[in-house]
Write a structure and sequence with these properties.
CATH class: Mainly Beta
Number of strands: 2
Strand order of the largest sheet: 1-2
CATH superfamily: E3 ubiquitin-protein ligase SopA
Number of domains: 1
Strand content: under 5%
CATH architecture: 3 Solenoid
Number of helices: 1
Largest sheet: 2 strands, parallel
Order of helices and strands: EEH
């Protein structure tokens, strides 16, 4: 028996094949947007909590203050996207391409960024406590303090 808060296959909503790229303020919780081309989309303050965005193209998208808590963003492409102040707590971004993405002041606590490409990304002021950064590419990333703090946090957790 599934407990409260557990997603099942019937929980996810399939979004129409043709969709507007203006998603600002929309409630898209638990929607499956896998593989969509959302380059340049505007999703400011959109609620994408628990959404599936597997291999979704979000280059140059505007995700400022978007809620992506627990979202599945494996291998998503965020090159030059603006996700300042976005909430990505517990999101799975493994293998995502975040080159030159603006993630300043984003909440990435407990997010999975394993093997993500964060080259040239702006992580200044980002919360990365408990985030997984194993194998992540960080060349030229801004916000080294946040990255070091996250690594120390993961190291301490491993010792307890």
């Amino acid at each position: 028996m599934l407990g409260a808060g557990v997603a099942t296959a019937s929980t996810f909503v399939e979004y129409p094949a043709r969709m507007s790229k203006n998603l600002s303020g929309q409630d898209l919780r638990w929607h499956d947007l896998s593989g969509r081309d959302l380059k340049g989309a505007r999703a400011t303050r959109a609620n994408l909590a628990g959404a599936i965005l597997y291999r979704t193209r979000l280059a140059n998208a505007r995700l400022v203050k978007a809620n992506l808590v627990g979202a599945y963003l494996v291998e998503a492409r965020f090159a030059s996207a603006n996700a300042c102040c976005a909430i990505l707590t517990g999101a799975n971004l493994s293998g995502a391409r975040l080159r030159k993405a603006r993630l300043a002041r984003a909440d990435l606590r407990c997010a999975n960024l394993a093997k993500a490409d964060l080259s040239g990304a702006d992580l200044r002021g980002a919360k990365l406590d408990g985030a997984t950064l194993d194998g992540a590419r960080l060349k030229g990333a801004k916000g080294v303090r946040a990255i070091r703090k996250a690594r120390r946090s993961r190291h301490k957790q491993g010792r307890t």
